[in-house]
Amino acid sequence: MKLDRFINRPVLSTVISILIVILGLIGLATLPITQYPDIAPPTVSVRATYTGANAQTVLNSVIAPLEDQINGVENMMYMTSNATNSGSGDISIYFKQGTNPDMAAVNVQNRVSMAQGLPPAEVTKVGVTTQERQTSMLMAFSIYDETDQYNIELLENYANINVIPEVKRINGVGDAMVLGTDYSMRIWLKPDIMAQYKLIPNDVAAVLAEQNIEAAPGQFGERGKQSFQYTIRYKGRLQQPQEFENIVIKALENGEVLRLKDIAEIELGRLTYSFNNTVNGHKAVSCIVFQMAGTNATQTISDIESLLNDYSEKLPAGLQINIAQSANDFLFASIHEVVKTLIEAFILVFIVVYIFLQDMRSTLIPAIAIPVALIATFFVLKLIGSSINLLTLSAMVLAIAIVVDDAIVVVEGVHAKLDQGYKSARAASIDAMSELGGAIVSITLVMMSVFIPVSFMGGTAGTFYRQFGLTMAIAIGFSALNALTLSPALCAIFLKPHEEHSEKKSTFVSRFHTAFNTTYDNLLQKYKKRVLFFIQKKWLSFGLVVGSIVLLISS
Questions:
Q1: Which of 67, 125, 213, 438 lies deepest, with the highest CB count within 10 Å?
Q2: CB 388 within 8 A of CB 468
Q3: Measured on CA atoms in the order 400, 406, 410, 415, is the torsion positive or negative?
């Protein structure tokens, strides 16, 4: 393999390496940072509400017919459902890994539409909602009243109207929700008084449906001789408790009018009183933010924290924001440990290479090849839609010891030529690469073939190990590219003929190298004797191999 063009033109080799490093830095700056790959299966949630029904009624009349229609939707793995005594029901449909979540939601919505006539009319009137469910929680924060001057309804309403809409607009937020309920006009009926007037709750509901509406009253003056045409406007839906109190229920026989305030107590309150939130003993409302798949978790959390900091200055007097949980806490701690391990591994590899090569010039060549190969890997990870997570970083920690091998082979090959009497490092590099080029390519393909098949694994395990295996294979590929271009060019520049290159070493370094070489030579002689022994005793070697295979199979 002729690679003398890269050796004779070191600028070309340097430019190639600089280019892939720049591309790698671009990928590093734009890759999303997450704790783990997106392993959660795509999930679609179907929700319905049957007001006033208990859990068993919701299961029989709402959940069961919806499940019958949804069951068997394309790429579905399984589904779960639950119902509560407050009248709400929820069905979660889990799909196979790799399923497009948008298409999954569309398919489920089509199945739900087919079942619209099966649940009770009260359910379909409120509506059956279908949406993608985000499973990766980014942050949980609370707005609490440290002065205890506000009620819980105001806190929940403030979070719903002011904070949550702005949080949802942040790039990377898949969903944001308040662990609370909306404002509601609470009408507490008085059964004893209603019985006197022979009324039932459905009578009140019918009156509310007739009188509390948004309607189009039309226009007047369109066909007459008037000069102007007017559009009729009216108040529309009622908003204040006093307006609801004056709703006419029925006319009595004595000519009096029965109003809603006569048979009920009306107040603005919460939709449900099933739970309350507190922070350090103070009334509070909690909010949860979920991540959109494929986005940068750390950047999204930073944007949310910045928004909350700005809001802290605009909150009403006495309100404070408390961040209860953030995914960045564990994420940064985990990535910090992996990055520290990455740096430690690089330092250890540098020391080991220097001990064996015993030459700082020769050690610099593998030391340059390692960051070039690792940084360039980020660019390909960006192209294939991967992320910076614990698995990809762990793969790079292991890849350090592998990507350095190709550079060491090149350096040793050039040194071997210089030992033979070559007076020019450039000529030695050209001859060495003509012999080593094919070997480097073949060993690289073999090493990559070990890790690439992992990317074809399915399921959750495949999602975990796919990014790990591909990161290893990509780093090894860039290592070979460096070994064929940059490393021989650096050898031609850095290395000197052995008789001319007499680097001065300290007494300690000289003694260490002498002791190390003596020990290494002794171990090498013992190793040669053992190998020669097993070569001469072929049947013994064969028996050991067969015995080892039998033990492995039996275990």
A1: 67
A2: no
A3: positive
- The CA-atom distances, in angstroms, between 533 and each of 415, 525, 527, 529 are 31, 12, 10, 6
Q: Is 34 helix (H, G, I), strand (E, B) or coil?
A: coil
- Amino acid identity, position 396: M
Q: How far apart are CA 27 and CA 172, in angstroms?
A: 18
What confidence score (pLDDT) does residue 334 get? 74
**Residue in the block written with tokens 């430690």:** 344
284 neighbors 143 (Cβ within 8 angstroms): yes
Task: Give the three-class secondary structure for 71.
Answer: coil
List CB contacts of 277: < 8 A, sequence separation 6 or more. Answer: 142, 152, 179, 180, 283, 284, 285, 286
Bridge-based pairing state of the strands 137-145 and 319-326: antiparallel
State the virtual CA torsion across 458, 463, 465, 468 in degrees, nearest 10.
140
How far is C-alpha 531 from the geometric centre of its chain's CA atoms?
51
pTM above 0.85, yes or no: no
Where does residue 216 rank: exposed (0-12), middle (13-18), buried (19+ CB within 10 A)?
Answer: exposed
Q: Residue 223 in contact with residue 298, Cβ under 8 Å?
A: no
Residues 6+ apart with CB under 8 A from 63: 48, 81, 83, 89, 91
Question: How many CA atoms lie less than 13 Å away from 191 in the CB half-sphere?
Answer: 0
CA distances (Å), origin 199, targets 51, 339, 482: 20, 72, 87
Q: How far apart (Å, rounded) are the C-alpha atoms in residues 370 and 539? A: 43
| Residues 288/137, Cβ–Cβ less than 8 Å | yes
381 vs 392: CA distance, rounded Å = 9
Q: Provide DSSP, 235-267.
A: --S--SHHHHHT-EEEE-TTS-EEEHHHHEEEE
Collect the ranges in the chain with pLDDT lower than 50: 501
Q: Which of 277, 295, 276, 286 is nearest to 134 (CA)?
A: 295
Unique residue bearing structure tokens 């087919």: 114
